[in-house]
Amino acid sequence: xxxxxxxxxxxxxxxxxxxxxxxxxxxxxxxxxxxxxxxxxxxxxxxxxxxxxxxxxxxxxxxxxxxxxxxxxxxxxxxxxxxxxxxxxxxxxxxxxxxxxxxxxxxxxxxxxxxxxxxxxxxxxxxxxxxxxxxxxxxxxxxxxxxxxxxxxxxxxxxxxxxxxxxxxxxxxxxxxxxxxxxxxxxxxxxxxxxxxxxxxxxxxxxxxxxxxxxxxxxxxxxxxxxxxxxxxxxxxxxxxxxxxxxxxxxxxxxxxxxxxxxxxxxxxxxxxxxxxxxxxxxxxxxxxxxxxxxxxxxxxxxxxxxxxxxxxxxxxxxxxxxxxxxxxxxxxxxxxxxxxxxxxxxx
Length: 348
Description:
Blueprint: E1 4-7, H1 12-23, E2 29-32, H2 35-45, E3 49-51, H3 57-64, E4 69-72, H4 77-91, E5 94-97, H5 102-110, H6 112-118, E6 121-123, H7 131-143, E7 149-157, H8 162-171, E8 176-180, E9 183-187, E10 193-197, E11 203-208, H9 213-221, E12 225-231, H10 234-250, H11 253-261, H12 270-275, E13 277-285, E14 291-299, H13 301-317, E15 324-325, H14 328-332, E16 344-347
Protein backbone atom coordinates (compact mmCIF):
# COMPACT_ATOMS: atom_id res chain seq x y z
CA UNK A 1 0.00 0.00 0.00
CA UNK A 2 1.31 3.45 -0.94
CA UNK A 3 1.36 6.24 1.60
CA UNK A 4 0.25 9.12 -0.61
CA UNK A 5 -1.39 10.08 -3.88
CA UNK A 6 -0.39 12.72 -6.43
CA UNK A 7 -3.46 13.94 -8.31
CA UNK A 8 -2.84 15.63 -11.65
CA UNK A 9 0.42 13.69 -11.86
CA UNK A 10 0.51 13.91 -15.65
CA UNK A 11 0.55 17.71 -15.62
CA UNK A 12 3.83 19.58 -15.87
CA UNK A 13 4.30 20.17 -12.14
CA UNK A 14 2.68 16.88 -11.12
CA UNK A 15 5.12 14.95 -13.30
CA UNK A 16 8.05 16.85 -11.83
CA UNK A 17 6.87 16.13 -8.28
CA UNK A 18 6.50 12.47 -9.22
CA UNK A 19 10.09 12.35 -10.43
CA UNK A 20 11.40 13.90 -7.22
CA UNK A 21 9.33 11.46 -5.14
CA UNK A 22 10.77 8.47 -6.99
CA UNK A 23 14.29 9.86 -6.65
CA UNK A 24 13.69 10.00 -2.88
CA UNK A 25 12.71 6.32 -2.89
CA UNK A 26 8.99 7.00 -2.44
CA UNK A 27 6.26 5.16 -4.33
CA UNK A 28 3.22 7.43 -4.65
CA UNK A 29 -0.03 6.43 -6.28
CA UNK A 30 -0.58 8.53 -9.41
CA UNK A 31 -4.02 9.92 -10.12
CA UNK A 32 -5.74 11.93 -12.82
CA UNK A 33 -8.45 11.96 -15.50
CA UNK A 34 -6.33 11.10 -18.54
CA UNK A 35 -5.96 7.32 -18.40
CA UNK A 36 -3.42 7.05 -21.22
CA UNK A 37 -1.14 9.72 -19.75
CA UNK A 38 -1.44 8.52 -16.15
CA UNK A 39 -0.86 4.87 -17.12
CA UNK A 40 2.21 5.74 -19.20
CA UNK A 41 3.74 7.78 -16.37
CA UNK A 42 2.98 5.09 -13.80
CA UNK A 43 4.53 2.36 -15.96
CA UNK A 44 7.60 4.52 -16.55
CA UNK A 45 8.26 4.66 -12.81
CA UNK A 46 6.77 1.33 -11.76
CA UNK A 47 3.96 2.95 -9.76
CA UNK A 48 0.31 2.22 -9.04
CA UNK A 49 -2.23 4.52 -10.66
CA UNK A 50 -5.91 5.39 -10.35
CA UNK A 51 -8.02 7.12 -12.99
CA UNK A 52 -10.93 9.29 -11.88
CA UNK A 53 -12.46 12.74 -12.16
CA UNK A 54 -12.95 14.99 -9.15
CA UNK A 55 -16.67 14.99 -10.00
CA UNK A 56 -16.82 11.22 -9.37
CA UNK A 57 -17.07 11.32 -5.57
CA UNK A 58 -17.30 7.55 -5.19
CA UNK A 59 -14.16 6.92 -7.22
CA UNK A 60 -12.44 9.86 -5.53
CA UNK A 61 -13.14 8.47 -2.05
CA UNK A 62 -12.00 5.01 -3.14
CA UNK A 63 -8.79 6.45 -4.58
CA UNK A 64 -7.99 8.15 -1.26
CA UNK A 65 -8.81 5.06 0.76
CA UNK A 66 -5.75 3.83 2.58
CA UNK A 67 -3.48 6.78 1.74
CA UNK A 68 -2.22 9.16 4.40
CA UNK A 69 -1.99 12.33 2.33
CA UNK A 70 -2.58 13.78 -1.11
CA UNK A 71 -0.64 16.31 -3.18
CA UNK A 72 -3.30 17.97 -5.32
CA UNK A 73 -1.71 19.33 -8.52
CA UNK A 74 -4.70 19.79 -10.83
CA UNK A 75 -5.60 23.47 -11.04
CA UNK A 76 -6.98 26.04 -11.39
CA UNK A 77 -7.51 25.29 -7.72
CA UNK A 78 -10.39 27.72 -7.38
CA UNK A 79 -12.27 25.16 -9.51
CA UNK A 80 -10.86 21.93 -8.06
CA UNK A 81 -9.75 22.39 -4.43
CA UNK A 82 -13.22 22.07 -2.93
CA UNK A 83 -13.91 18.63 -4.41
CA UNK A 84 -10.57 17.21 -3.33
CA UNK A 85 -10.79 18.88 0.07
CA UNK A 86 -14.25 17.50 0.80
CA UNK A 87 -13.05 14.01 -0.14
CA UNK A 88 -10.14 14.41 2.27
CA UNK A 89 -12.54 15.28 5.07
CA UNK A 90 -14.66 12.23 4.29
CA UNK A 91 -11.70 9.85 4.11
CA UNK A 92 -9.59 11.54 6.82
CA UNK A 93 -6.72 12.13 4.40
CA UNK A 94 -4.27 15.01 4.87
CA UNK A 95 -4.64 17.61 2.11
CA UNK A 96 -1.88 19.57 0.39
CA UNK A 97 -1.83 21.42 -2.92
CA UNK A 98 0.37 23.78 -4.92
CA UNK A 99 -2.03 26.71 -5.27
CA UNK A 100 -1.20 30.38 -5.09
CA UNK A 101 -4.83 31.57 -5.17
CA UNK A 102 -5.97 33.75 -2.27
CA UNK A 103 -9.55 32.46 -2.40
CA UNK A 104 -8.37 28.86 -1.94
CA UNK A 105 -6.20 29.75 1.05
CA UNK A 106 -9.05 31.61 2.69
CA UNK A 107 -11.52 28.77 2.04
CA UNK A 108 -9.09 26.31 3.62
CA UNK A 109 -8.58 28.64 6.59
CA UNK A 110 -12.35 28.76 7.08
CA UNK A 111 -12.36 24.94 7.23
CA UNK A 112 -9.89 24.87 10.13
CA UNK A 113 -12.28 23.39 12.70
CA UNK A 114 -13.63 20.88 10.21
CA UNK A 115 -10.09 19.65 9.61
CA UNK A 116 -9.39 19.46 13.34
CA UNK A 117 -12.55 17.43 13.84
CA UNK A 118 -11.37 15.02 11.11
CA UNK A 119 -7.89 14.85 12.65
CA UNK A 120 -6.22 15.94 9.43
CA UNK A 121 -4.01 18.80 8.31
CA UNK A 122 -4.98 20.94 5.34
CA UNK A 123 -2.04 22.86 3.91
CA UNK A 124 -2.57 24.56 0.56
CA UNK A 125 0.48 26.11 -1.08
CA UNK A 126 3.24 23.54 -0.47
CA UNK A 127 5.18 24.65 -3.55
CA UNK A 128 6.85 27.85 -4.64
CA UNK A 129 3.46 29.28 -3.84
CA UNK A 130 4.05 29.92 -0.93
CA UNK A 131 6.78 28.01 0.91
CA UNK A 132 9.76 30.37 0.34
CA UNK A 133 7.81 33.58 0.86
CA UNK A 134 5.93 32.19 3.87
CA UNK A 135 9.24 31.23 5.47
CA UNK A 136 10.57 34.69 4.62
CA UNK A 137 7.56 36.31 6.30
CA UNK A 138 8.03 34.16 9.42
CA UNK A 139 11.75 34.95 9.55
CA UNK A 140 10.98 38.67 9.56
CA UNK A 141 8.33 38.25 12.24
CA UNK A 142 10.72 36.21 14.40
CA UNK A 143 13.32 38.99 14.14
CA UNK A 144 10.86 41.85 14.66
CA UNK A 145 7.96 40.57 16.80
CA UNK A 146 6.46 44.08 16.92
CA UNK A 147 6.09 44.25 13.12
CA UNK A 148 2.89 45.83 11.82
CA UNK A 149 3.76 46.09 8.11
CA UNK A 150 5.13 43.35 5.85
CA UNK A 151 6.26 43.76 2.26
CA UNK A 152 7.40 40.81 0.15
CA UNK A 153 8.78 40.65 -3.38
CA UNK A 154 10.07 37.99 -5.75
CA UNK A 155 11.89 37.80 -9.03
CA UNK A 156 11.65 34.57 -11.02
CA UNK A 157 14.06 33.80 -13.82
CA UNK A 158 12.36 31.29 -16.13
CA UNK A 159 9.15 30.63 -18.04
CA UNK A 160 5.78 29.51 -16.71
CA UNK A 161 4.02 26.18 -17.17
CA UNK A 162 0.75 25.76 -19.04
CA UNK A 163 -1.17 25.36 -15.77
CA UNK A 164 0.24 28.53 -14.23
CA UNK A 165 -0.55 30.52 -17.36
CA UNK A 166 -4.08 29.10 -17.44
CA UNK A 167 -4.72 30.20 -13.85
CA UNK A 168 -3.35 33.68 -14.54
CA UNK A 169 -5.42 33.98 -17.71
CA UNK A 170 -8.59 32.99 -15.85
CA UNK A 171 -7.95 35.75 -13.28
CA UNK A 172 -6.86 38.47 -15.70
CA UNK A 173 -8.77 41.68 -15.20
CA UNK A 174 -9.83 40.86 -11.65
CA UNK A 175 -7.52 43.42 -10.07
CA UNK A 176 -5.16 43.09 -7.13
CA UNK A 177 -5.35 42.59 -3.38
CA UNK A 178 -3.49 43.69 -0.25
CA UNK A 179 -4.16 43.27 3.45
CA UNK A 180 -5.00 46.23 5.63
CA UNK A 181 -5.76 46.05 9.35
CA UNK A 182 -5.96 42.29 9.05
CA UNK A 183 -8.50 42.29 6.24
CA UNK A 184 -7.96 41.45 2.57
CA UNK A 185 -8.87 44.45 0.44
CA UNK A 186 -9.23 44.72 -3.35
CA UNK A 187 -7.04 47.25 -5.13
CA UNK A 188 -6.62 48.06 -8.82
CA UNK A 189 -4.28 45.94 -10.90
CA UNK A 190 -0.67 47.20 -10.67
CA UNK A 191 -1.76 49.34 -7.71
CA UNK A 192 1.76 50.26 -6.68
CA UNK A 193 5.31 49.91 -7.99
CA UNK A 194 8.61 50.17 -6.16
CA UNK A 195 12.29 49.47 -6.65
CA UNK A 196 13.43 46.29 -4.88
CA UNK A 197 17.04 45.46 -4.02
CA UNK A 198 17.36 41.68 -4.22
CA UNK A 199 21.06 41.82 -3.31
CA UNK A 200 24.29 41.38 -5.25
CA UNK A 201 23.49 44.45 -7.31
CA UNK A 202 20.15 43.12 -8.58
CA UNK A 203 17.67 46.00 -8.35
CA UNK A 204 14.37 45.60 -10.17
CA UNK A 205 10.98 47.30 -10.45
CA UNK A 206 8.28 45.38 -8.62
CA UNK A 207 4.52 45.69 -8.98
CA UNK A 208 1.81 44.64 -6.54
CA UNK A 209 0.06 41.35 -7.29
CA UNK A 210 -2.62 39.32 -5.48
CA UNK A 211 -0.10 36.64 -4.44
CA UNK A 212 -1.05 33.95 -1.95
CA UNK A 213 0.93 35.57 0.87
CA UNK A 214 -1.70 38.29 1.13
CA UNK A 215 -3.65 35.46 2.77
CA UNK A 216 -1.05 33.11 4.21
CA UNK A 217 1.48 35.54 5.67
CA UNK A 218 -1.22 36.92 7.94
CA UNK A 219 -2.17 33.47 9.19
CA UNK A 220 1.52 32.71 9.75
CA UNK A 221 2.62 35.96 11.41
CA UNK A 222 -0.43 37.97 12.44
CA UNK A 223 1.08 41.05 10.76
CA UNK A 224 -1.99 43.12 9.77
CA UNK A 225 -0.70 45.10 6.75
CA UNK A 226 0.76 43.08 3.86
CA UNK A 227 1.74 43.84 0.27
CA UNK A 228 3.34 41.47 -2.26
CA UNK A 229 5.30 42.48 -5.36
CA UNK A 230 6.71 40.69 -8.37
CA UNK A 231 9.19 41.96 -10.93
CA UNK A 232 7.65 42.83 -14.28
CA UNK A 233 8.85 44.78 -17.34
CA UNK A 234 7.36 48.19 -18.02
CA UNK A 235 5.25 46.79 -20.88
CA UNK A 236 3.65 44.21 -18.58
CA UNK A 237 2.92 46.80 -15.91
CA UNK A 238 1.29 48.98 -18.56
CA UNK A 239 -0.86 46.04 -19.67
CA UNK A 240 -1.85 45.33 -16.06
CA UNK A 241 -2.97 48.93 -15.64
CA UNK A 242 -4.97 48.74 -18.89
CA UNK A 243 -6.77 45.68 -17.53
CA UNK A 244 -8.40 47.95 -14.95
CA UNK A 245 -10.57 49.29 -17.75
CA UNK A 246 -10.83 46.18 -19.95
CA UNK A 247 -11.34 43.59 -17.21
CA UNK A 248 -14.98 43.03 -18.12
CA UNK A 249 -13.99 42.25 -21.72
CA UNK A 250 -11.07 39.98 -20.77
CA UNK A 251 -13.38 37.91 -18.57
CA UNK A 252 -15.89 37.14 -21.32
CA UNK A 253 -16.12 33.61 -22.70
CA UNK A 254 -14.88 34.29 -26.26
CA UNK A 255 -11.86 36.30 -25.08
CA UNK A 256 -11.00 33.73 -22.42
CA UNK A 257 -11.21 30.98 -25.02
CA UNK A 258 -8.90 32.89 -27.32
CA UNK A 259 -6.38 33.66 -24.58
CA UNK A 260 -6.31 30.03 -23.43
CA UNK A 261 -5.74 28.87 -27.02
CA UNK A 262 -2.53 30.91 -27.11
CA UNK A 263 -1.01 29.23 -24.05
CA UNK A 264 1.90 26.99 -24.94
CA UNK A 265 1.84 23.47 -23.52
CA UNK A 266 4.38 22.17 -21.01
CA UNK A 267 6.84 24.29 -19.12
CA UNK A 268 10.57 24.93 -18.81
CA UNK A 269 12.91 22.11 -19.81
CA UNK A 270 15.19 20.39 -17.31
CA UNK A 271 18.09 22.44 -18.67
CA UNK A 272 16.14 25.67 -18.30
CA UNK A 273 15.15 24.81 -14.75
CA UNK A 274 18.75 23.95 -13.87
CA UNK A 275 19.88 27.39 -15.02
CA UNK A 276 17.04 29.27 -13.37
CA UNK A 277 16.77 30.71 -9.89
CA UNK A 278 14.33 32.75 -7.86
CA UNK A 279 15.16 35.73 -5.68
CA UNK A 280 12.96 36.81 -2.78
CA UNK A 281 13.09 39.92 -0.62
CA UNK A 282 11.14 40.93 2.43
CA UNK A 283 10.82 43.95 4.68
CA UNK A 284 9.11 44.32 8.05
CA UNK A 285 8.51 47.57 9.91
CA UNK A 286 6.74 48.53 13.12
CA UNK A 287 5.00 51.61 14.42
CA UNK A 288 8.15 52.71 16.27
CA UNK A 289 10.05 53.05 12.99
CA UNK A 290 12.11 49.87 13.27
CA UNK A 291 12.86 48.21 9.92
CA UNK A 292 14.53 44.93 8.92
CA UNK A 293 15.09 43.08 5.65
CA UNK A 294 15.74 39.49 4.60
CA UNK A 295 16.61 37.88 1.27
CA UNK A 296 16.32 34.31 0.04
CA UNK A 297 17.70 32.71 -3.12
CA UNK A 298 16.00 29.51 -4.30
CA UNK A 299 16.27 27.16 -7.25
CA UNK A 300 13.96 27.80 -10.22
CA UNK A 301 10.32 28.00 -9.14
CA UNK A 302 9.07 24.62 -10.38
CA UNK A 303 12.12 22.89 -8.96
CA UNK A 304 11.45 24.58 -5.63
CA UNK A 305 7.82 23.46 -5.82
CA UNK A 306 8.73 19.80 -6.35
CA UNK A 307 11.36 19.80 -3.61
CA UNK A 308 9.12 21.59 -1.10
CA UNK A 309 6.02 19.49 -1.81
CA UNK A 310 7.89 16.22 -1.29
CA UNK A 311 9.73 17.55 1.77
CA UNK A 312 6.44 18.43 3.45
CA UNK A 313 4.88 15.13 2.36
CA UNK A 314 7.75 13.24 3.99
CA UNK A 315 7.10 15.15 7.22
CA UNK A 316 3.42 14.22 7.14
CA UNK A 317 4.27 10.57 6.47
CA UNK A 318 6.54 10.74 9.52
CA UNK A 319 3.57 11.92 11.62
CA UNK A 320 4.91 15.47 11.82
CA UNK A 321 1.72 17.46 11.33
CA UNK A 322 -0.74 19.64 13.21
CA UNK A 323 -4.43 19.04 12.61
CA UNK A 324 -6.39 21.92 11.12
CA UNK A 325 -5.51 24.59 8.58
CA UNK A 326 -1.78 25.27 8.49
CA UNK A 327 0.66 27.29 6.45
CA UNK A 328 4.13 25.87 5.75
CA UNK A 329 6.00 28.24 8.08
CA UNK A 330 3.35 28.13 10.80
CA UNK A 331 3.60 24.34 10.94
CA UNK A 332 7.32 23.87 10.38
CA UNK A 333 9.02 27.20 11.10
CA UNK A 334 10.96 29.81 9.15
CA UNK A 335 13.89 27.44 8.57
CA UNK A 336 11.77 24.98 6.57
CA UNK A 337 12.98 26.54 3.31
CA UNK A 338 16.62 25.96 4.32
CA UNK A 339 16.00 22.20 4.23
CA UNK A 340 15.83 22.38 0.42
CA UNK A 341 18.95 21.97 -1.68
CA UNK A 342 20.26 25.17 -3.23
CA UNK A 343 18.60 27.67 -0.88
CA UNK A 344 20.48 30.58 0.69
CA UNK A 345 19.17 33.18 3.17
CA UNK A 346 20.65 36.51 4.18
CA UNK A 347 19.36 38.80 6.93
CA UNK A 348 19.65 42.52 6.50
